[in-house]
């Protein structure tokens, strides 16, 4: 009984978002589904590298997957505000499930081709364009503003625990049964998240718009609103740099494993898990300090530390050194992304929140085609070491420019918890 009481107190103090029934449905479903997602991620990267042997072609697959987010995420923010988010998520998660089953069928029947993977990646990107801002802005509807940062930190914990477990299982499965089974199990895993979403009972926020207010006018209003805000503007700029240059691990780690370390898919899975261990640790730390609220200075400091870790990765030459540096990279990455995501959602007014999060999707994930092609091209020309160093150097330089420009700006040092509406 005492242990049960202690566990309840611990959850109430550090994981308070789990006290919301609707959030529990979403969270437990994601715990299962994200393991499958990471199995598919490493399976797809290794499959493309095996079929083509080209880091640039691997980068092109990632570019196709994220290009729709770059092109259409601003329009997605308008759609998300006008329909119940629960209904949108049921549709987008169902589509993701069907695409995973399709890729599994192609691989298991030996009919897969590089061109088919490109098409499926493009379709998944179109689906994620709507799914990402919906999920981001749905959190506040099911936990409220006070527990939002805690919910985001818990989401990061789930994502990164899956990043540890998923690649490990996926690497073993690829070695024993082939990549097709990674894709098949990912499709099955979506049943859990769909079950959770269906059982959520939340009053949806649907924004009413004026009859004469056009889509382009709404997009423009959202961008102007961000540009004028002393917290939103620097945060979005930092996220755009990190999203473009510092999140290309699906491109660089398999190439580094194969061409620099000369190791197999098992080592690839281990290195991805190291990244996940660091990220999980960072998510736990952010969860424990969530009641303090997000601060712009945390995002600024973390962005520089991410850049230094990337440069260190490029200078490493052993599995152990690379694994340690990837763990550190994951730690600071998750510190940056959790704090920045919370800053944007908690600082934005309700009528702008979905549009702000669609811009977040644009600069965080939509910039990936540029980063994927750039890192793939650099890895092709100068190797994975050179790509890590160049990406890290550019990240540090651009983030430092943004920090110097906005340092001391009125309102940028305050927490949105202090300025809650």
Automatic annotation (TrEMBL):
Primary site of residence: membrane
Any one Pfam family match given in the protein's UniProt record, by short name: MFS_3
TM annotation in the entry: 23-40, 60-80, 87-108, 175-198, 236-256, 268-286, 298-317, 323-344, 356-378, 384-404
GO molecular function: transmembrane transporter activity
Any single GO CC term annotated in Swiss-Prot or TrEMBL for this entry: plasma membrane
Subcellular location: Cell membrane
SUPFAM superfamilies named in the record: MFS general substrate transporter
Membrane topology: Multi-pass membrane protein
Keywords: Cell membrane, Membrane, Transmembrane, Transmembrane helix, Transport
Domain Major facilitator superfamily (MFS) profile, first and last residues per copy: 1-410
Protein name: MFS transporter
């Amino acid at each position: 009984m005492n242990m049960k009481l202690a566990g309840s107190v611990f959850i109430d103090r550090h994981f308070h978002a789990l006290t919301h029934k609707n959030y529990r449905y979403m969270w437990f479903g994601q715990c299962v589904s994200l393991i499958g997602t990471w199995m598919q991620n490493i399976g797809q990267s290794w499959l493309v590298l095996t079929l083509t042997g080209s880091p640039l072609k691997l980068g092109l697959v990632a570019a196709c997957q994220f290009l729709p987010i770059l092109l259409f995420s601003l329009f997605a923010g308008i759609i998300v505000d006008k329909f119940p988010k629960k209904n949108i998520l049921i549709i987008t998660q169902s589509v993701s499930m069907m695409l995973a089953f399709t890729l599994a069928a192609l691989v298991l029947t030996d009919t897969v081709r590089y061109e088919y993977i490109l098409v499926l990646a493009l379709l998944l990107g179109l689906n994620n364009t709507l799914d990402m801002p919906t999920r981001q802005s749905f959190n506040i509807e099911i936990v409220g503003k006070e527990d939002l940062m805690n919910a985001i930190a818990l989401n990061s914990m789930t994502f990164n625990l899956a990043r540890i477990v998923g690649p490990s299982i996926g690497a073993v499965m690829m070695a024993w049964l082939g990549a097709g089974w990674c894709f098949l199990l990912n499709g099955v895993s979506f049943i859990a998240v769909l079950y959770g979403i269906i059982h959520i009972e939340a009053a949806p926020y649907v924004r009413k718009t004026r009859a004469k207010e056009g889509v382009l006018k709404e997009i423009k209003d959202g961008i102007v609103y961000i540009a004028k805000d002393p917290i939103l503007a620097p945060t979005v700029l930092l996220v755009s740099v990190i999203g473009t240059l510092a999140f290309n691990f699906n491109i660089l780690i398999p190439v580094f494993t194969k061409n620099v370390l000369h190791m197999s898919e098992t080592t690839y899975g281990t290195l991805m898990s190291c990244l996940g261990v660091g990220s999980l640790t960072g998510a736990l730390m952010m969860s424990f300090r969530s009641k303090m609220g997000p601060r712009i200075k945390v995002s600024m400091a973390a962005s520089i530390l991410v850049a230094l870790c990337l440069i260190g990765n490029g200078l490493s030459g052993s599995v152990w050194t690379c694994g340690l540096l990837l763990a550190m990279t994951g730690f600071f990455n998750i510190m940056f992304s959790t704090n920045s995501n919370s800053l944007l959602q908690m600082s934005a007014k309700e009528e702008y929140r979905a549009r702000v999060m669609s811009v977040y999707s644009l600069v965080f994930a939509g910039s990936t085609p540029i980063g994927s092609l750039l890192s793939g091209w650099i890895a092709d020309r100068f190797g994975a070491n050179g790509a890590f160093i160049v990406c890290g150097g550019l990240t540090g330089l651009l983030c430092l420019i943004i920090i110097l420009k906005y340092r001391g700006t009125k309102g940028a040092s305050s927490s949105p918890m202090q300025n809650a509406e």
